[in-house]
Amino acid sequence: MGSGKPPLILASGSPRRKALLEALGYPIRVAVPGVEEEDLPLPPKALAQALARRKGEAVQGEWVLAADTVVDLDGEVLGKPKDPEENRLFLRRLSGRPHLVHTAFYLRTPKEVVEEVHTAKVFFRPLSEEEIAWYVGSGEGLDKAGGYGAQGLGMALLERVEGDFYTVVGLPVSRVFALLWARGFRP
């Protein structure tokens, strides 16, 4: 840190968010907030925002970024599956249908806090039981909202995405970059 530039503190344990920000060249320090991601009795979009805020407020620092991603199937939150059986159930429900993915972020700068929620629409192609079993067997979906990762093996399940693909991955990168850039925090 010889330049004296403070790091961007990422209030998230997500390796995907960290990799996206590092790919842009930001100095990152991860500070996993000790907050529960329990289901608050909120609609999906508001839940994403409440959890992102809770994570961001739990971490100290000059430049802090927190985010939370919620999968919304007809107004119902599909969280991280608790086991492979629930992962299988989620994929059966998503198969052949569209759903929404809301990613909220909380950005604290030395002067202000910016909070936004971005939404993308994801269309799954119809999946066979064999395909579902293959994906569940990979274990990839167990630590991800909705039980799938759009940027990993889960790319084989998606027909198309309307909106920002990176919102589905877990961070609306272009928007976060533009906000940081405009505030003088540059890679």
Automatic annotation (TrEMBL):
Q: Where in the cell is it found?
A: Cytoplasm
Cellular component terms (Gene Ontology): cytoplasm
Q: Name one GO biological process term.
A: nucleotide metabolic process
- From the Swiss-Prot or TrEMBL record, what is one GO molecular function term? UTP diphosphatase activity
Q: What is its EC number?
A: 3.6.1.9
Record keywords: Transit peptide included? Answer: no
**First-level EC class:** hydrolase
The residues annotated as site (Important for substrate specificity) are R16, T69, Q151
Catalyzed chemical reaction(s): dTTP + H2O = dTMP + diphosphate + H(+); UTP + H2O = UMP + diphosphate + H(+)
Keyword annotations of the record: Cytoplasm, Hydrolase, Nucleotide metabolism
| Residue numbers annotated as active site | D68 (proton acceptor)
| Major place of residence | cytoplasm
Q: What cofactor(s) does the depicted protein rely on?
A: a divalent metal cation
The UniProt entry, under Pfam families, shows: Maf
- What job does this protein perform? Nucleoside triphosphate pyrophosphatase that hydrolyzes dTTP and UTP. May have a dual role in cell division arrest and in preventing the incorporation of modified nucleotides into cellular nucleic acids.
Quote the PANTHER family the UniProt record gives. BIFUNCTIONAL DTTP/UTP PYROPHOSPHATASE/METHYLTRANSFERASE PROTEIN-RELATED (PTHR43213), BIFUNCTIONAL DTTP_UTP PYROPHOSPHATASE_METHYLTRANSFERASE PROTEIN-RELATED (PTHR43213:SF5)
> Which protein family is named in the record?
Belongs to the Maf family. YhdE subfamily.
What's the name of the protein? dTTP/UTP pyrophosphatase
- Source organism lineage? Bacteria, Thermotogati, Deinococcota, Deinococci, Thermales
